[in-house]
Amino acid sequence: MKKLLATLILLAAIPSFSQQNNTLPDPDLEINELDEVIIQGNRLQTPFSESTRDIQVITQKQIQALPAKSLNEVLSFISGVDIRQRGPFGTQTDISIDGGTSEQTLVLINGVKMLDSQTAHNMMNIPVPLSAIDHIEVIRGAAARVYGINALTGAINIVTKKSKLSTVSVDIRAGSSFKGKDDGDGGGIYGGGAAEVTGVYGSDTQSQLFSLAQSNSNGQRYNSASKNTRLFYSGNYDFNSNNSIQAMAGYAQSHFGANGFYAAPGDINSEEHVKSSVFSLSSKHTWGDFTLSPRISDRYGEDDYRYFKEDISRGRSIHYTNALMLELNSSLKTGIGTFGFGWESRLEKINSSNIGEHERDNHGVYAELKSFLSEKLRGTIGLYGNYNTDFGYQMYPGLDLAYRINHHWKIAASIGSGQRIPSFTDLYLDQRPGNIGNALLQPENAWNYEGNIQYQNGNLQLKTGYFYRQISEFIDWVREDPSTPYSPINLGKNTMHGIYGRMQQDFELAGKQSFGYQVSYNYLRPSVETSTEIQSKYILESLKHQLVAGVHYSINDFSFQIKNRWLQRELANAYNVADVRLNYKVQNFLLYTEITNLFNATYKEAGAVPMPTRWFGLGVTYQWGQG
């Protein structure tokens, strides 16, 4: 707590003045710029300023200024998002929203689902480096009507850059804790480095993005070394104003020591190799007020876990998964509003050494209406119908309303429902004596109710809200005593009460100076109603308090940002992590240095993996062109 107070005093000690534009990557989220962002992942694309749901957007400018080395670290600063890394520096991450589990949150790239039918542990093994991202959309609450199944507690859509101008970005960085290696890991100190290159070839009719990223680290503790490769392409070509085609392809490969990931302390010498690829081809056609957008996409994954990395003849698990996805989305503008309707199919397969061979298909249809009910009131109502070959039919309605009281105040409310289909690991895993699946599991079903109020006056933005979520047939891995294997069951009814608040403001100073701050707080109170006395592992790990605060300051070509996160989980001690980044602009070059975990906190986010101690980083970014 003393470290948290020290950080807050440091934040408060900087005088409050506001922002103006400068040549540095600017973390300030200018209101006019944000209002122009189109929420891409929605069935009906919506300007941010017209959104009827609580959607948070983080832009490329903000990403560049954050003290973050990976997408995982960027997301850790977003209100309500819980990042639980088993390996640091982007190796493996579980991600959840508003106290849900990692299986209940959906991640997408340009609207294409990264859902992994084997396990959510691999969903964040994605091919997009930070420099290729235009913005990130975070939608909270049950979102089946918007994204289909498994968006039970929310969804995160990563939108990549598209530009009519050609650009090049090159980033090279390295870092270390300057601590010696543990016994058995060789001599020297722990450290690592990364490089990424992103180029966009743009013109009036096309935008072609190519990106390559590579990171290598010898770890931060014994057997925690990692090597990550990312390749990504995204292209758009306009035949004319009414017809266009889009393509996307990516490949991600990670190889890392898995000490403490799943079965500590016995897995001290384990390692994991994960590969995934994604491909998408879509088009968009407009005839007057009617738009049609077909898409075909595929995501393939390989997961090779080696309990004994020196002896792969035993304790080895190999999984191959594939999901072919077909979609047809459409919209029609009418006098009463914009209708959206469409269909999607997802064909899943797995071939695994300890899960077996399985297939299942999922088909969904949706209808939605977005309308201005009056000058101040707007609403969206929709219905998603789902059929799964293993679990049958289900319907998921939803309603969002937003009322603008005046120029400064807006209130909003939403009711949404959703479903989470059990993963193949939940159903069929046979990993005795450690874990065993349950083929009798039923899907989780959720209802989410939320209300919030928002105030905006100049550069000051405030939002606060309350939500209540109820999940029936909640799934958790449990066991009666240490002599029996863990197994998932439909534990009962999981309820969640949550309150949240966010505030940000930017000020201008004379002499080309700017200053701003952001503060967010989330409080979660979960409970499980069950007829069994088995204690829920999920409840023990659920996030209870999350406070994220930060300030940024710039003068001429120099800027800095400090971010502080204070988190506490159920029945666990709170921890405080402060990160700092300094930037200096020299023509087309940006020189930066970072210190993460400034106060050298000791903490764990997942499994039995201690996160890195104080870490020092140094990097340079070269940028050519304007996008």
TrEMBL record:
Residues 1-18 form the signal peptide. Keywords: Cell outer membrane, Membrane, Receptor, Signal, TonB box, Transmembrane, Transmembrane beta strand, Transport. Pfam families: Plug (PF07715), TonB_dep_Rec_b-barrel (PF00593). SUPFAM superfamilies: Porins (SSF56935). This is TonB-dependent receptor plug domain-containing protein. It is found in: Cell outer membrane. It comes from the Bacteria. The keyword Signal applies. It is a multi-pass membrane protein. Coiled coil: none annotated. InterPro entries: Beta-barrel_TonB (IPR000531), Beta-barrel_TonB_sf (IPR036942), Plug_dom (IPR012910), Plug_dom_sf (IPR037066), TonB-dep_rcpt-like (IPR039426). The keyword Membrane applies. Residues 190-598 form the TonB-dependent receptor-like beta-barrel domain. Belongs to the TonB-dependent receptor family. Residues 50-155 form the TonB-dependent receptor plug domain.
